[in-house]
Specification:
9 strands; five-stranded parallel sheet; binds adenosine-5'-diphosphate; binds guanosine-5'-monophosphate; Rossmann fold; four-stranded mixed sheet
């Protein structure tokens, strides 16, 4: 795959605040595009097809595994998630910088792909705070929250794979830290 552009990979346990941090970051980096993933998870209230995710069914996703459509894919919290190979290839070919918001399994696949991403792992300040954030977000059923919390430990055990590990305790502080990482890696002051 041609790669004139750069890849940033951001992972975190569900509820750590990754989406919130990315939403604060992107307006400051007009040259960075968000890679919209495909998923078989049902949309949350307010999520828009094509902006937050491309929402597809399991049969469609599995067919696209067979045709090697995915640059990386994983089954996360009971649903499929994947990144389109052609989308990433086209963006990198054009010299664009892409931000991939993907889980640790997907991050490992990207790291093994030779695409040399900048990788960031976002940690919650504590397990209790992670639970509070998932509950306060109010988007997931109790069973879904329990499953995501159960997976958090395993995800956190993989954080050593990442170049940067950032704790999202105070939002403004974490947001500024993420911004500094991007500035440094993009060669901006
Ligand atoms: P993720 O994308 O990692 O699953 P979200 O960005 O959806 O997580 O954040 C989960 C919840 O926690 C949201 O309700 C969000 O507003 C809240 N949140 C995010 N960062 C912080 C923070 N630093 N302090 C307190 N609450 C936060
Ligand atoms: P959510 O359902 O909360 O939006 O996302 C659940 C998890 O799936 C998060 O860790 C998120 O980063 C991850 N995820 C989202 N898109 C992709 C993707 O394309 N590939 C992989 N491997 N994980 C993804």
């Amino acid at each position: 795959m041609a790669r004139k552009g750069r890849l940033f990979v951001i992972s975190a346990p569900s509820g750590a605040g990754k989406t919130t941090l990315i939403k604060q970051l992107l307006p400051q980096f007009s040259e960075v595009s968000y890679s919209v993933s495909h998923t078989t998870r049902p949309p949350r209230p307010g999520e828009v097809h094509g902006r937050d995710y491309f929402f597809i069914d399991e049969a469609g996703f599995e067919a696209m595994i067979e045709t090697a459509h995915w640059l990386e894919w994983a089954r996360v919290h009971g649903h499929y998630y994947g990144t389109s190979r052609t989308f990433v290839a086209n963006q990198l070919e054009k010299g664009n910088t892409l931000l991939l918001d993907i889980d640790v399994q997907g991050a490992a696949q990207i790291m093994a792909s030779g695409l040399d991403p900048v990788s960031v792992f976002i940690m919650p300040p504590s397990f209790e705070e992670l639970r509070r954030r998932l509950e306060n977000r109010g988007t997931d059923a109790a069973q879904t929250i329990a499953r995501r919390l159960k997976n958090a430990e395993q995800e956190i055990s993989q954080k050593h794979m990442f170049q940067y590990v950032l704790v999202n305790d105070d939002l403004e502080t974490a947001s500024a830290q993420l911004c500094r990482i991007f500035k440094k890696e993009m060669g901006r002051n």
